[in-house]
Structure prediction request, 458 residues.
Amino acid sequence: MKRWILAFFLALVPVLGVMAPAVAQATTVSGGPLTSGKPVKATISIAGQTIQYTFAAKAHKHVTFQVTNFNFSDNGSGGDLYLNFYEPGSSSTYTSCYFSDNGYCDFTAPIGGTWKAVVDPNGGSTGSMTLTFANDVATKALTTGTPVATTIRFQGQNANYTFPATAKAHVTFQVTNFNFSDNGSGGDLYLNFRQPGSSSTYTSCYFSDNGYCDFTPPLTGTWSVVLDANGASTGSLMLTFADDVPSQPLTSGTAVSTTIVFQGQNAGYTFAATQNKHVTFQVTNFNFSDNGSGGDLYLNFYEPGSSAVYTSCYFSANGYCDFTPPLTGTWSAVLDANGASTGNLTLTFANDVATKALAAGTPVATTIRFQGQNANYTFPAKVNTNIAFQVSKFNLSDNGSGGDAYLNFYEPGSSAVYTSCYFSANGSCTIKPPVGGTWKATLDPNGASVGSLTLTMG
Prediction:
């Protein structure tokens, strides 16, 4: 009996050995080299199988890997996998990305050479997907005023640009034809600016539509810009880099036309000023708009050698701006368009009408040509002796309405008004100086009044 059992068992062993299923062996198959922008189909048919690809990378250059047509399952449930990356010659994972659906994975390679990417399914996952490796969009050099079209085809892909900058010279970047989406929703992106030779972001601007970004570089040299699409955003846009309108010297009484072509662009001017001498700036032919609405701007004034605004004037139509500079020298003015305003205008700088000496009984004709312009006179005075001033041929107007003016009187050496007389037509004014000497009178038109009159000292 025992011998029969033993013989039966010994006879059964070979049969069981034949019937036992073979255990599947995990394998790594070569997927070959990846080419930027060329999709490949990755299929895992056996649980535990991996696929190894190679790709060429450059040190400090950003790359992306987009997964589409993801179709993996794990014993009837959703499948998932890792995409593991290996530096040239290394068997240790440099970085890894997880996928359970379509998506992307991007990083910046620290060293150049031939890298490996391994598709490593999780658990018992099998299935297929499309894998696309992509370098960034090739770097483009920006030239002021020249639009550059850019298309981001793959999720995680960036685009790069360079532009020349001068220290403390303002620049702007206008985005038009914005057409980005993120898996069916509105797409968005950042423009990251980097100083010459730096990999750190100096400043950054966000876009989810047409718009602009402007700043003043602190360093001279070739700057770089990275268009970094947010999330899974892909699409296209037009980017225009622009320097400011070149600075123009202003001459008293000479009109200068200026056009702001790009959003965020400024225009510069210089003018000669004398300490305590009044000046005016008249704006005509104002034609600015901001995305279909009325445009506006500031005219900022800077003392010689200063980067801080001394005073500023606002314009949303024709008008003027006047002030008295406290310093002699070459001042600068910056036309800083507000918001996204673009357009054109004519700017006229003007000194006051040259000072005229009044003599008793001699009429002096005066013409105020520019809004905000004054006229100055001097006259001799005796203590407590009445002096009459007669205005005739009064012809001042203020934008089509009746104009008016003040005649302000100053004691010798003083900048404070001693007394003042008002004129809106022909008339006269008498003062009784408390001190003798050479007094000053200033004809200060009210509002935007311009025109002519004749002044006679009695």
